[in-house]
Amino acid sequence: MICPCCGESREISSSECASCGAKQVGPPLAKPDVLMPKLGPSFAALACGVIVIIAFLMYWALLIDDARVGRALLVWTLGDGYELTKKLLEADPKLPYYRIFTFNAYRRAITLSIVAIPLSLAGIWLARRALRLIKSDSASFGGIKVARASYCLSIGLLVVFSAVSVSSIPRVIATGRAKRIAATRALMYELHARGLQRYYKEYGKYPGELDNEHLSKVNAEEAPQSDYWGHNFEYRPVAVIASKGSGINLSDYKLISSGPDGRLGTEDDITMINGVIVELQNDPDAADLNQGRARQ
After folding, report:
1. Exposed e or buried b for every residue in 123-132, given b needs 16+ CB within 10 A?
2. Which of 186, 206, 211, 281 is most buried as measured by Cβ atoms within 10 A of its Cβ?
3. What pLDDT, on the 0 to 100 scale, is given for residue 294?
4. Phi and psi at residue 232, to the nearest 5°
5. Is-contact 111 98, C-beta < 8 A?
6. Would the pTM count as exceeding 0.85?
7. Are 280 and 264 in contact (CB under 8 A)?
8. Rounded Cα gap, residues 47 and 51, in angstroms
């Protein structure tokens, strides 16, 4: 038995607590005829689903883009007859024409899925646990309808956020590829500005080779010579106008990145001609050069 004064255990037969000296003034209270069942497990499962929904709505409507979704929904709901909505329209007259709610929600769901999926799984586990407890001891645990609703809600949230995450994979891959291509183009522009163009202004022609020996003449040794994937650029100087002397005036050049596959002459090649990125189909010269490298 627990002493109500100090919380220490004592013998039921003893009339005095050995720890604090408190004396028993009457017999222990009898157990109630009816015990209220515990609802904690069922509501814990429900809380996971509710947290996911509230977090998504707040993130979608209030926490991103200066709460533009929330402001647009408020204007749509209340109209322009209230002082609050009038102020909102004065600050942003385009609110009534906002029409990308679905796309905006899709983008927010992708970001939130990192948290929503684990919480949904936790809600499923808690709901199954609550149902097992209710089944094994219905007198002590209740809330079977709440547990079932929580189970269905968590499964629905898991399916929705998982589907959103899976559907975003191709877009994420394409975005990553585009970023890497953009980074390679930036490296090519940097090489043109810091090295090749500076060499042309200094010597009236482009270098015969793309190496530190030539770039060092214009203090451009640090200029990039490889693309984002670590493949060396293919540099081809071209003599269009012959010089008056015996030498050859290299007045043009072509700079090629072999792209993600590392092979020249394929569709993913990135080509620059005289400092300008151009869109070309498969370059037969690059393909021949690539085959020659393969034979070596």
Report:
1. bbebbeebbe
2. 206
3. 42
4. -65, 140
5. no
6. no
7. no
8. 6
- How far apart are the C-alpha atoms of 214 and 235, rounded to whole Å? 13
Length of the chain: 296
The token pair that represents 188 in the structure block: 């090519």
At 165, the amino acid letter reads: S
Report how far residue 130's alpha carbon sits from residue 43's, in angstroms, rounded to the nearest whole number.
9
Hey, what are 274's tokens?
């005289």
Instruction: Choose the weakest-confidence range: 27-36, 108-117, 120-129, 164-173.
Output: 27-36
| Run of H or E residues at 238 | strand 234-238
Contact by Cβ (8 Å): 253, 236: yes
Q: Which DSSP string do the residues of 140-205 spell out, in sequence order?
A: TB--HHHHHHHHHHHHHHHHHHHHHHHHHHHHHHHHHHHHHHHHHHHHHHHHIIIIIHHHHHHHSS
pLDDT at 290 over 60: no
| Site of tokens 């402001």 | 71
Q: What is the mean pLDDT of residues 185-208?
A: 91
Cα–Cα distances in Å, from 180 out to 147, 177, 230, 259? Answer: 48, 5, 11, 9
Q: Within 10 A of 27 (CB to CB), how many other CB atoms are there?
A: 7
pLDDT at 241 over 60: no
Binned at pLDDT 50, 70 and 90, residue 288 comes out as very low
Residue 146 has pLDDT above 60, yes or no: yes
Mean of the per-residue pLDDT values for the chain?
A: 84
Choice among 77-81, 120-124, 168-172 with the minimum mean pLDDT: 77-81
At 11, the amino acid letter reads E
Characterize 191-220 residue by residue with b for buried, 16 or more Cβ atoms within 10 angstroms of its Cβ, and e for exposed.
Answer: bbebbbbbbbeeeebbbeebeeebbeebeb
Buried b (16+ CB within 10 A) or exposed e, 53-92: eebbeebbbeebeeebbbbbbbbeeeeeeeeebeebeeee
